[in-house]
Amino acid sequence: MFPTMPRLSLLLGTLLLVLACESDQKAQRKDEKLPPLRPPAENLFCAVGGDDGVGMPPKPTTPEQLSKEEVDQVWVPRSKVLLECYEDRVRRGYAIKGHVGLRFFVNEKGFVQQMCLVEDETGDSELINCIFGEVGTWKFPERPARTEVRRRLTFKLPK
Questions:
Q1: Is 120 exposed, middle or buried (0-12, 13-18, 19+ CB in 10 A)?
Q2: What are φ and ψ of residue 35, in 5° steps?
Q3: Cα(56)–Cα(76) distance, rounded to whole angstroms?
Q4: CB neighbours of residue 149 within 10 Å
Q5: How far, in Å, CA of 53 to CA of 55, rounded?
Q6: Can you point out the beta strands (E) in the chain?
Q7: What is the pLDDT of residues 86-132, one digit of tens each?
Q8: Are 110 and 140 in contact (CB under 8 A)?
Q9: CA dist., res. 110 & res. 121, Å (int)
């Protein structure tokens, strides 16, 4: 019984030291200031004049193009990952919110091309890069003609 007492004291001392170090690191992280948000690069924005705005009614599609329903079949199940892009930024401490408007084309092979921002109220290039990185990898059904897609994402801070 007595030979284990020094080991127990050593273990307790080590544990207290580790907990104290972790506590100091957490306190230090809370005191650290977040780096400022950087707005998205200007070359990511597309024209917003005329009928190019994301809020405009979609142009009529032809039978050779993707229908709204076909686009939704890809967009809706995958859009959760776009929310994860946002939630990751909020978890890091950024209080960002607002709309992000996207416009892109789906080519004949079903791949995303010429993606650009129509609007960005978040001012967060990291969020925009994440969204572009995700949407740019999506595969849509193949069609004989390319299809223009416009989407508006709304991000709200959790309550």
A1: buried
A2: -65, 150
A3: 20
A4: 21
A5: 5
A6: 98-106, 112-120, 147-155
A7: 999 999 999 999 999 999 999 999 999 999 999 999 999 999 999 99
A8: yes
A9: 29
Q: How many CB atoms lie within 10 A of CB 99?
A: 15
pLDDT digit string, tens, across residues 13-62: 444 444 444 444 443 344 468 888 888 888 888 865 545 555 555 677 78
pTM: 0.73
Residue with tokens 């990751």: 88
Dihedral Cα 105, 52, 120, 101, nearest 10 deg: -50
The whole-angstrom separation of Cα 78 and Cα 66 is 17
Provide the token pair at 9: 């004291």
Give residue for tokens 């994301």. Answer: 54
CA 125 to chain CA centroid, nearest Å: 10
End-to-end CA distance of the chain: 54
- Distance CA(100)–CA(126), nearest Å, equals 13
Residue the block writes with tokens 């990291």: 126
